[in-house]
Amino acid sequence: MRKFHLTEAVGLLVTSANQPGRDLQMPGEPHYKPKDLRPYLGYDQRVGWQIIVEWAWLRALAHHKIIPPQYTVMLTSELLAVLLAEITTTKVTALERQDGVGHDIIALLMLMRELLPNQLHPFLHWGLTSYDTISCAYALAARQTFKCVFEPKCQEVDELWRQRIGETAEKLQIGRTHLQHGLPITIGAWLTPLHRRFINTVKKAGEAVKEIHGKFSGAQGTNNALKVLAQGVPLEKTALAYLDLPEAEPATQLPLPEGMARFYSEITFISAALAGLGEDVRHLQSSDIEEIGSEGSTSSTMSHKTSNPIAAENQAGMHKSVRCEYYKVLETMNSDLQRDLRYSNVMRGYPAVMVFTYQQLLTVMRVFKSFRVNEQRCQENFWRNGKLVVAELLHLTLQIAGYPDARKFVNDKIVPLARGTGSTLDVAMDTYLGSSEDVRLLRMWTETSPKIKHILAHPEEYLGDSVSIAQAETTWALDPMRKHVL
After folding, report:
1. If 0-12 CB within 10 Å is exposed, 13-18 middle and 19+ buried, where does residue 220 land?
2. Do 176 and 33 share a structural domain?
3. Which residues of 451-461 are buried (b: 16+ CB within 10 A; e: fewer)?
4. What's the whole-model pTM score?
C-alpha cells in the first residue's frame, strides 16, 4: 500500500482551487483577499482540509489493517484528487441545510460516500467525532498555510528590509523621542530595531505553529469507542504523524486551546512590528518632515498633493483589524464542560488573523520597493537643532569632572546661548567662559579632551554605534526557509 504523503495531499487541495466556480473568499473584510492565500484559506477550500483529515484517518485504519488489505488499494491519490475537486464548502453547506441533515460533518460524509467505493463506506469517520475532523483541519490549515505561504513571504520581506538597512546604514538622521529631536542616528539604525522585532516574532510564530494540536479521541477525548473496538492500536498517533501534527495531549471534545491561541498571538505580534514600521514611515513622509518617501497617492480634491502615504497608513491601520480578529481567539478559549456550540461559528474566522497580517506583508513590500531617502531634508532637519543635540555629551563630561548639577547648567546656560547665537556648543562654552569668573569651570573646560571638543563642534559625528548596529543587522537574517514543492 502506498503511504500517505501530506505534501501531495496539500498540493491536490491547492490545485483544486482552480476548479471553475470556486468561492475563494476568505475570512475578514472582502477587500483584502491575498491571492496566495486563497487556495489555502478560501471558503470552498475549508472543507478540503477536513477531507484530508478524513483521508489520513482512512490511511491510518489501512496501515493497521482495520481496513482489509484488498480494499486499501482503493485509497489512491487519484481518488483523493476527485474528492478535493468535487466537494466544496458551498456544497456541504447546501446539503447541511436540507431537512433531515442539519450537521456539517454529516453532510460532508454523505458527499464523500457518493464518491468513495462502497467497500470503504464502513470505515469513513469510524470511531471519530465531528471535532476530531474539524480540530485537526483547523490545525492543519494553520500549519500548512504558515509553512507554505506565510513563512516564505516573511523571508522575502526580511531580505528586502535588510537590503534597505544596508543602503542607509550611514545616512544621517536626527533621532526622535516624544516626536522631539533627540540624538543623531542613521536611517539604517532607525530601521534596525523594527526589523529585529519582525524577525524575532516570525521565528516565534514558526515555533508556536508546531504546538497546534489535533486529536482523534472521540466525543469526550477519552477514546471510548476505540478503546473497545481497536484496543492497543495507535490509530491517533499514526494519523497525527501523517498530518505532521504533534501527538495529542489530553483533550475534551476539543484539543487544548493554548497552542492555537499562542500561534495566532505571534502572528499578531508580527502584525504589530509591521504596523510600527508603517507608523514611523507615515510620520517621516509627512510634509513637515519629508525624510522618507514611499508609495503614495494624490488627493481626490487637493490637486497639489502627491504623497499621501497610503501604503504606510494601510500597513499601520491593518494592525487594528488583526487585533480585533485575535480578540475572537481569546474570547473562545473555554467551553462548558467538555464541549458546547457557542463558539464554533467564531472559530471559523480565526484565519482572518493571518489574512490581514499577510496583507501587511504585501504592503510592506510595496513600501520598501518604493522606499527612498530625501537626504537633503534629513540634513535640513538635523541642522535645525543639530548644533545642540550633543548637549548630552557636554553635561556628562562636566558631570564626571565634578561640576555640580551639570545637566541643569548646560540646559539653562549653554544651550540657550548656543541657540541664540547659532553657534556650536564648544563655541558657546568659550563665549560663556569669556565673561565668567568660574575658575573651576574654566579648568574643567581647559582639561576637556580635544576629541570631545571636536564632536561638540561636529555633532553630525556623534552617532554612537548607529552605523555598526545597522551594518550588523544586514546579516541578522531569518533562518533559510524550507522549500515547499507542491
Report:
1. middle
2. no
3. eebebbeebbe
4. 0.93
